[in-house]
Every structure is written in C-alpha cells, then in structure tokens.
Specification:
The protein is mostly helical. 47% of the residues lie in helices and 0% in strands. Helix 1 runs antiparallel to helix 4, helix 2 packs antiparallel against helix 3 and helix 2 crosses helix 4. It is elongated and about 55 Å long.
C-alpha cells in the first residue's frame, strides 16, 4: 500500500511525486513552523520543478478546505458519539484538533494537490545540474 510508486506513498511521506526519492520540503518536520511550507525549488534527484506554474499551490487551498471540513466532522462524530461530549466540548475539541493539526494539514494538502498533476515515473533519471 505504501510501496514506492504509489501516490499514497508520495502523499503521506511528502516525497517528490515523480521519483519519490527526496522530500519536497526543506524541513521534514511539519511542526518546524517557520519552515512549514518552505519547499525545495526542484527535486535534486529527477529535476522536477515543484512550482509547476506561478501560484501553483494556491489550488491546494481547496484541498486544505476539504481536509479541514473532513477533520472537523470526524472529530465531532468521535467526541459526540463515542465520548458523549456536550456540543460545547465537541466544538472545543474541533478547534484544538484543527489548530494542532494545521501544519500537517497544510503539507498534506500540498502533497495531494501536486500528486493530482504529477505521476510516478520509475525511469526518472538522476538529474545533473
């Protein structure tokens, strides 16, 4: 399921969608907040330019919105149904979850978005600059 070559592998690990050899991000830890969305300009292995066109990752905002809604609904259902929280407790839980997972959500949205446009290429050659 998470084998090299699958989109899910690239999405969850944040690796280059074309060769899956290198992380797209300068800092691998999403909780390094000053560098949460700072990306390499291109993959040092295959040469894929991550910013496919100017403002490319603006589209990831829509993916992030969907992830945020799904997370909010999921937290609400878990807290209300499984733990029988009050509405107020459930909404506080949603806010805490959304703030706590914001860096992960931002990266996940970018990873999903670029993987919508770039596919794995097993024959991607080592890039020489």
């Amino acid at each position: 399921m998470l084998k090299k070559g699958s989109k899910l592998n690239s999405i969850l690990t944040g690796t280059c969608p074309k060769c899956q050899e290198e992380s797209m991000y300068v800092a691998r830890n999403p909780y390094n907040l000053p560098k949460v969305i700072e990306m390499h300009e291109h993959c040092s292995h295959c040469g894929l330019h991550y910013q496919i066109e100017p403002s490319f990752f603006y589209g990831a905002m829509y993916v992030n919105y969907g992830l945020t809604v799904a997370l909010g609904v999921g937290v609400f259902l878990i807290t209300k149904v499984l733990f029988n929280f009050t509405i107020t407790q459930s909404f506080i839980s949603i806010i805490v979850a959304l703030i706590g997972l914001m860096p992960v959500n931002l990266r996940l949205a970018r990873n999903i978005y670029i993987n919508m446009f770039v596919s794995y290429d097993a024959k991607a050659k080592k890039h020489t600059s």
